[in-house]
Amino acid sequence: MLVVSSCRFRYPYPTMKRFLLVTGQTCICCLAVAGQAAPTPVKLSLRQAIELGTSPNGIASLQLAGASMQAAEARVAQAHAFLYPVLEASVGEQNLTRNLSAEGFNFPTGVPNFTIPAEVGPFNNFDLRLLLTQNVYDAGAFRRGRGLRAGLEAARADITAHREISAAQVAHHYLEMLRADTSLDAARAGVAVAESLLKLAEERETAGKAAAVEVTRAKLRLAADRRKVLGAASERDQARLQLLGDLGLDFTTSLELADQLVFTPSDVPDAASAVATAFKSRGELAASQKREEEAQDNEQAIHLERMPTVFAYGDVGPLAAVITHTVGVTMKVPIFDGGRRNARRAEALTAVHQQEIQQRDLRRQIELQVRKAAASLQAAAAEIEVCEGSVTLAQEELAEARRRFEGGVASNVDVVDAQAKLTQARADKIAVLYTWNLARVDLAQASGTMGSLELPGRGN
Fold this sequence. Notes:
Layout: H1 14-23, E1 42-44, H2 46-53, H3 60-81, E2 86-99, E3 119-137, H4 139-206, H5 212-247, E4 255-257, H6 271-281, H7 283-304, E5 309-319, E6 322-332, H8 340-406, H9 413-446
Parallel strand pairs: 1-4
Antiparallel strand pairs: 2-3, 3-5, 5-6
């Protein structure tokens, strides 16, 4: 674990501070400065990688889900504002001239020597007014606000779902790098064996106990094993870059994975209990349920628009030096709208039906994911036992062939063949171990329990 002393460095990248908090280091300024490679590999466990990848500034899909939740919160706040009165103020001054004849004041007054003038003005009119309106009863609007709150809960459930998806993505790439690390170690072990066998062949040739072709054969085997090392190293670099991309860290950061790719025969829940856990934990299902509630509330809100709506209003202010006011209550009763409301309600009922279909299909998909992951886990567990036996047998065959070659009983053809079999057996075992751990990740994602997923650390 890299630990450096504290300093007053201001983090130029938001992810640096997050990485510091997760890994428990004092300062990261010397680790992830742009354009500089890390002086020492940073040790990272699967749990730490998931915490980094699922932080608010982690994978983009998780950030977008957070933005959607903020938009839903704004819509709910807007619906809540409907419950409060609206207070407005207005002020104005006018200079007016009015044509009374045009407005109908052209009749005889019946008063001698008094006629209505054709026009009045100009005159000034100053008006300062406060206007207060308050919704008293609107059942449709109240129900629509309830639907918006259900939409907010759906957005929060979406964040949970995206966090699980992001965690699974990080775990997959972590396992890919762990597999590449294990393959690289196995390839280097193969090179070490090939070098020892080449040395043995050269010694026997010098002593006149082996032909030159046996040295050539050993050199070819060594060259093949060295190519495997180069391929495994390239695969590891690719996996490291992908993992750093998920974590939002600088691509020059050097990583050392703290976990190991091993078989942990722990108690695996049966498919039925895993399905039950998934139905309780999966954010996608919770979001679907809340969206169905939102659709139902919207449909009921349209239906309640048939009800009368009541609102109160009042204003007060000076008008031409006279304080005037208005106070009133208005009730609106919908009578006929040409079928618009029925059409909107039919559309809303269709949305409710669509949500019901989607939720049933989602439940089946979740159950399918859980059962497939559980089946893969069981198959990989059985295959691991076979691969471990194959590695043991290949090691015994290589040891026997080497003894025969050292004793001069046989050439190194059997040795090279046994070495190739051992290399393949190790590769098969690594592949099955990767499949086993990948199935664990898939089962955790399918059951919504990525937060409890861990791998054994090195040395455990």
